[in-house]
Known about the structure:
The structure is a homotetramer. Chain A is 23% helix and 36% strand.
Amino acid sequence: MADLTAERVVAAFDSLATGDRDRIVEYWAEDLNFTVPGTHAYAGRYESLDGFLGFVGNLVRLSGGSLNATRSAVLLNIEEGLSVDLNHITAKHAGSPADSDSPYDNYDIDALHLLRWENGRVVEGQFVAYGAHTEDVPLFWSPRNPDGSRREVV
Amino acid sequence: MADLTAERVVAAFDSLATGDRDRIVEYWAEDLNFTVPGTHAYAGRYESLDGFLGFVGNLVRLSGGSLNATRSAVLLNIEEGLSVDLNHITAKHAGSPADSDSPYDNYDIDALHLLRWENGRVVEGQFVAYGAHTEDVPLFWSPRNPDGSRREVV
Amino acid sequence: MADLTAERVVAAFDSLATGDRDRIVEYWAEDLNFTVPGTHAYAGRYESLDGFLGFVGNLVRLSGGSLNATRSAVLLNIEEGLSVDLNHITAKHAGSPADSDSPYDNYDIDALHLLRWENGRVVEGQFVAYGAHTEDVPLFWSPRNPDGSRREVV
Amino acid sequence: MADLTAERVVAAFDSLATGDRDRIVEYWAEDLNFTVPGTHAYAGRYESLDGFLGFVGNLVRLSGGSLNATRSAVLLNIEEGLSVDLNHITAKHAGSPADSDSPYDNYDIDALHLLRWENGRVVEGQFVAYGAHTEDVPLFWSPRNPDGSRREVV
């Protein structure tokens, strides 16, 4: 069984980007529970790997492929099978003007994933925004343009 | 041209309940703008009658038909073509336990509609929750059960 | 007893600006209930005229005197003793940079007051923000600068 | 210089409970930055140890001493000087009825602290709620009772 290491945490997220399900299931359990906080359309606890991958797909779609995450560190508690990875994440909402600096159009936050591993795979995950712009997160996820009209991409 | 009266405001909302589009367009303009506040999935400014009717349909669907509004008063400014109707609205989220008193499952708020009329029809509307439970509104609209899992009906 | 008219609604708000308590109590009842929505420090239902005047004072203080309200219309239901006045309100948070356009620093919303009158005085009031920037209101009221640091004026 | 260990993370929080400033400064730097998310009255980035201790004091005061945190695990990245401790935190708002289960009265959340250490002391911290009840946090922190009236203890 693969040991829990910082490299394995990184590889788990790299597998998501490949879209290769055979590779993804080396790191993420089929009965994964993954919680996204908030009251927006994509919030809540997904209770399967497919549910979680649907969420990831929506995030890519809403950001028009502009999503960028820079990982700064990984923390571990190996005995308990826990990892935390710290990231700075930026994205621009699909269809928003390139020069907009509105929090409705821009995602620019610190966020961490808290993962619990069993038998070498993630069985439980939390997405957690933190820091200065946490309060702006619902604005980006909302179906509104800065002027209040409904977005085209929701 | 029909005058703006409290009776006409009541009739406008009654027409929505009939689902009869010919009757609805006697009161609501085709190019109606209607704003729903918040950052939930159904928030934003709808910019056509069809968009607005889609919102109304979602509200009925999410509440499993349990939506109940009791109108207490209508205020008017006839020269400016403005009406406000005050309501107490209750609903139980589709699929939620009958005995739940969680704000995730129950909608129990005071709400008003602010409408602007031109040539006898509503051209602009605002849905506005107010009073003690305004803060709970995003919980009801969210895709979460009280325990954090994703709802079946979203 | 003074009748409920649009002029009387305007006069009630004008009295607040004078700070003259003798004049204020001509329009606002001593046992006034006044509700401010939200979860910020100044939210909740104030249950006396003094509580309400304390809220108004905090609003002036937080905005460094920059608060500006432009009334566009008054709606009435005279039999029920109800008034609604519509306003566009702007303010800049005390201590914020003059050129900031952050919603943490700027208040730029449509808001209405729903008032219930008895014996010529307001006995119950609701402050209600509506429209495109409703979601930004908690940011202005929060004790945070746009960079996340605590404000000097809170 | 003391090494970063799980024991040292635990001791840092234990020192806060003693109220002994000499002991506290063994773990927490005088120029500590500590961020509390949200738009409530106590949110924002505190930029000194005294500011942070004031926040902790408010938390104890608002919960009428009922605050209880159960730590489940500590994660580390020793090279980067980072720790995360996971907790379940419960509290009942001071003055609230003993049998209330309203989220306005009860704090019942998972929360973590993300700490950055330099020279054996915490120089930067984040309080981060996560999981199913994250959305309820602003209700507890608000100055409102469940019925919307202002709280006595705010």
